[in-house]
């Protein structure tokens, strides 16, 4: 019978025989398997010896035959909304653009949470911003200003001021004897010849 085990080839000689062992086995009769793990080839992992080889079980965050390659967790682009990914061993961190937060920058920060719109204005959230929809007569970024076209009163000579529907302008109701946008023009009542029986008309401010 072949004294060489595990597929070894027996070579006869003058003083006996010798075995040519297949890769992975050694000693005179090819009994013993070579321990490829003896050199500690797995840098960041656990070595499992095989016949004519070994396998590495890598620690989290490492890859490669010898567990010597840092697994780049940023390759999958986990950071949303154009966040910047920084790779670490067995992890990563996202630096979010302004207006976003969360592990993956997946959360749009609610800029309306602080209720910035005054005077019952409606807040519309944006990206790192907000917009206030103001109820008249309020205006401004935060509805903090009041549209008051009649204050101070632009209507002269006891004219009555009323705002336009959009509060952007005003309308003057003039007292008798006055006309014009601001009731600043005296009406010449004498143009209508109000004096009877050849009376002479003299125009005065607001009357005759």
TrEMBL record:
Q: Which cysteines are joined by disulfide bonds?
A: 21-30, 37-47, 58-67, 96-105, 134-143, 155-172, 174-183
GO biological process, alphabetically ordered: negative regulation of multicellular organismal process; positive regulation of multicellular organismal process; system process
| Keywords assigned by UniProt, alphabetized | Disulfide bond, EGF-like domain, Glycoprotein, Repeat, Signal
**Domain of life from the UniProt record:** Eukaryota
Q: Determine if Aminoacyl-tRNA synthetase is one of this entry's keywords.
A: no
PROSITE patterns registered for this protein in UniProt: ASX_HYDROXYL, EGF_1, EGF_2, EGF_3, EGF_CA
Q: Which GO terms describe its molecular function?
A: calcium ion binding
* PANTHER family assigned to the protein according to its UniProt record, in alphabetical order: CYTOCHROME C OXIDASE POLYPEPTIDE VIC-2, UNINFLATABLE, ISOFORM C
What is this protein's record name? EGF-like domain-containing protein
Query: Which organism's genome codes for this protein?
Result: Micrurus lemniscatus lemniscatus
